[in-house]
Structures are given as C-alpha cells and as structure tokens.
From TrEMBL:
InterPro entries for this protein: bZIP_Maf (IPR004826), TF_DNA-bd_sf (IPR008917), Transcription_factor_Maf_fam (IPR024874)
Source species taxonomy: Eukaryota, Metazoa, Ecdysozoa, Arthropoda, Crustacea
Annotated CDD domains: bZIP_Maf (cd14697)
Keyword Transferase: no
Protein name: Transcription factor MafG
Domain Basic leucine zipper: 48-139
Coiled coil region boundaries: 116-143
Transcription regulation found in the keyword field: yes
Keywords carried by this UniProt record: Coiled coil, DNA-binding, Transcription, Transcription regulation
Length: 173
C-alpha cells in the first residue's frame, strides 16, 4: 500500500509505507476558511498547503509538525510562512474594510452635499422674500414721511436699512 489518504477534500494525514506522514490535500471548496485559492509554497507544499498552514489552529499545527519529526529550521520556516500568510490575510481584510468605509463616507458626503444644495436653494428663496419685504417696508416708510405720519423705533433690527426705517408707524393727530 503506497499511502492512505484520510480525506481527499478535507485536511487529512497521509501515511506512507515507511510510517512517516504528512498533511494531505487542501480544504473543501465549502470550507469557511477557503477565502481564496492559494498554491502551496514549493519548498514546503509536500508537507502542508498554504491554506492549511494559515487556517489550522496553532496547537494542531504544532502537533502535526512535531509528529512528522521535521527539523527545527523547517518548523520555524513553516511558522514564519504561516505568519506571512496570516499577515497577508489581515492586510487584505483591512484593505477591504477601509474600502467599505471609504465607500460609505463617499455616500454620506454625497447625501450631505445634496442637503447643502437644497438648503442653499431654500436660503436663496427666503433671502429674496426678505429683500421684497424690506423693499415694501421702505416704501411704507417713504409714504409715511410724505404723509407726515410719525414713526416709532422697533426692537427688531433690519440689517441694511437706515435707523429711521427700523420703526413702527403710528398716526399722529
């Protein structure tokens, strides 16, 4: 018997004729850890795939590597490779999170810009109404002066008008 593969699609231990073993194959396509297809490092691919290296629990990995009787340097290189793979995944996750956040902020900015534009239009309309009311008020004040109607001061200032137009009109007898 050349070897016994514990599982074709799932991680398994390949037992050779001489009793030595190594981790076989890759994870199934339905595995939650199969976030991307990766090839095994050529130096260590016959020992363990990159997917398995990055997804195995560290205790399980240590047990498998210890059981295989690998040299300390090889184990250290595999652990270094694991850290590199995990760092790549973390970097990818961070990049995706940042991209999502940037997209969300751009949508928020677009919404806020639309709100500002709507408020500017409403403000412009209100400013025109205020200008029209000022124009009418000034006409009333001019008419009061012509008709010799006494004007008393108001408590509400109107910017841009002279102080004597900022008044209440009362008829003098």
């Amino acid at each position: 018997m050349k070897g016994f593969n514990a599982s074709h699609h799932n991680m398994g231990l390949m037992i050779n004729e001489d009793g030595s073993g190594h981790v076989s194959g890759g994870e199934s396509l339905s595995s939650p850890h199969n976030f991307e297809t990766r090839r095994a490092d050529p130096k260590y691919g016959n020992i363990i795939s990159d997917d398995q290296l990055s997804t195995l629990d560290i205790k399980d990995l240590n047990r498998i590597l210890r059981d295989q009787g690998l040299p300390k340097e090889t184990i250290e290189k595999l652990k270094q490779r694991r850290r590199t793979l995990k760092n790549r995944k973390y970097a990818t996750d961070c990049r995706e999170k940042k991209d999502t956040e940037v997209s969300h902020l751009q949508e928020t900015q677009s919404d806020e810009t639309s709100t500002i534009e709507e408020l500017e239009v409403a403000n412009s309309i209100l400013q025109k109404e205020i200008d029209e009311l000022k124009r009418r008020y000034q006409a009333v004040v001019r008419h009061a002066k012509v008709e010799n109607i006494r004007i008393t001061e108001r408590n509400v200032p109107l910017s841009g008008l002279s102080s004597n137009t900022n008044a209440q009109i009362t008829h003098s007898s």
